[in-house]
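Thread: Modeling a multi-component assembly for a lab meeting

Hi all, long-time lurker, first post. My supervisor asked me to bring a structural picture of a complex we are working on to next week's group meeting, and I have zero experience with this. I have the sequence lines for every component (567 residues in total). Could someone generate the structure of the whole assembly? Inputs are pasted exactly as I received them:
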Amino acid sequence: MNESSSINSKEPAIIDINNLCLTFETQTEPVHALSDINLQVNSGDFVSLIGPSGCGKTTLLRVIADLEKPTSGSISVEGKTPNQARLDRAYGYVFQTPALLPWRNIEANIHLPLEMSGYSKDEQKSLSNQYLSLVGLSGFEKKYPWQLSGGMQQRVSIARALSFDPDMLLMDEPFGALDEITRDRLNEELLRLWEQTKKTVVFVTHSIPEAVFLSSKIVVMSARPGKIINVIETNFPKDRNLDIRESKEFLKVSQLVREGLKEGHSDGS
Amino acid sequence: MEANRLFSILIGGTIGPVVILVTAIIMIWYAGAVYLNSSFLIDRYEKNNIEWTFSQLASDSWSMERPVLPSPHQIAKELKKTIWDKKITSPRSLVFHSRVTLSSAMVGFVMGTFLGIVLSVGIVYVPALDRTLMPWIITSQTIPILAIAPMIVVVLGSMGIIGLVPKAMISTYLCFFPVVVGMVKGLRSPSILLVDLMNSYSASKVEVFWKLRLPASLPYLFASLKVAIALSVVGAIVAELPAGAQGGLGARLLSGSYYGQTSLIWAALITASVISATLVTIVGRMERAVNNRMGLQI
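Re: Modeling a multi-component assembly
Sure thing. I ran the full set together rather than chain by chain. Output:
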């Protein structure tokens, strides 16, 4: 922890958000999805956004990805506007559902972003092989999405997001729709991927154990208006496995997150 | 046991039920021929003071020169005469007439499909076209084709455009509509999620079209094409009815009704429906081939 954070602290933040607000105009009344958000994400961080439904955590992720525009405030991604960062393909986005194209086989699905980034056919092939083996799906190249389980599909979607080697991985409750056993396994895999690829990850979840297990930084949010209640840094060994969930330190951080969520809840109601 | 096996042969499989249905239709047809032709025959019997029995009535009504409803074997004979026995270049050959109708139907189908796809892309990508074009497209289909077909044929004829083109245009007129409706829906069918995915790769509009919208629209396109190809035959036949077209199944229908040759009309009708069914089947085969290639389940 000390070693990595001391390196990170010298670099400028890869994502820098200041006083950001986002209001959706609806027919009845404006909805304050995000209110006065301040957040810095350093290169190599694993940041989880956690909070109840409707707290704007997905919206915040979409603002970083330039899929939503903020109403006010400033945000820079890799020192650029989010729009420029998106045009430069700075991030891979993993959605709540795998979002694979049903008419493309697994390999061709991973080729999708590569085709648009101008990789040659050979490069596409070797990259899809490389990332499929990274997520443990070698041998499934020619299968179609419907032939794979939900967990496998989501792994394809992660491989696809990594395939063009973006600096950041933005993940929106990627394991929310999966059963707990699959989710646990994928959590461990994701941690290993993070360690191997040294990507910056922003991860939206509403599961406390998931957030605590994965993150180097947990951002606790509250709903209506969506705002940040607390930012908790964790200090677990990088090569941790699920056993750590039994440790005192883990329970302490979980408790901290839970209290933050509770505070936000009582605040809101 | 025996009865059971016979039953399962009849009902199981695909051939059994089809045979049963066709037999039933033919039997009803023969009965209908007796019923519809009887009043004329009975009049004639009474005028000539002929004693008649039911069996005589039946056999007479199945072999009339100009029946109200010809019997199936008369139509079959007519089909054999006009398809098998005549040279295919003869104007009395149904093959000749089918070729005339089919060629204008196919030209119309191709043009209609092309027009439909172009219009749907315009409607999906240009908001102004979406608001202005769609009402007109729908209005165009509320005009009865029988009313507008002669006008198109006559107007184009006065401009010196005769033969295949005016007929193909009427097929086009009928064909483009299902293609527009289907393709607009198909091109808009990708979920917001997949559009966001493409945006996250900073995909251009062209890339979104070729890699997402077009492949997603193919199932809709094929559903539309099945409707359109059947309509293209209808359009070609309707276009042959006015202005005394020289060839085509429509002209054949017209001359049949001039001369009270009902078996000639029925033979042309059956030929037309066989052509339509074959074309729809071909589109269905193409659809399956494309689906297989795209790894989609039917």
